[in-house]
Write a structure and sequence with these properties.
This protein has 1 helix and 5 strands. By secondary structure, the protein is of the alpha+beta class. The chain has one domain (2-45). The radius of gyration is 14 Å and the shape is globular.
């Protein structure tokens, strides 16, 4: 599950700033949401990877 952080958060020894989007297991993600540290992301907020073979812009 992906969440957007509302407050700074350390996960696996990495500090993430507010606004960062991280993927976590569902239990941890729900705990962060319940404690007000994060909010669930919707599909349109998830960054779409760029295919290396596609042109970025013309």
């Amino acid at each position: 599950m992906q969440v957007e952080l509302l407050k700074p958060h350390t996960h696996a020894s990495t500090v993430y700033p507010p606004g960062g989007v991280i993927a976590l297991d569902e239990d941890l993600a729900k705990w962060l949401v319940d404690t007000g540290i994060a909010r669930p992301t919707s599909d349109h907020q998830t960054p779409k990877p760029i295919n290396r073979n596609e042109e970025k812009s013309k």
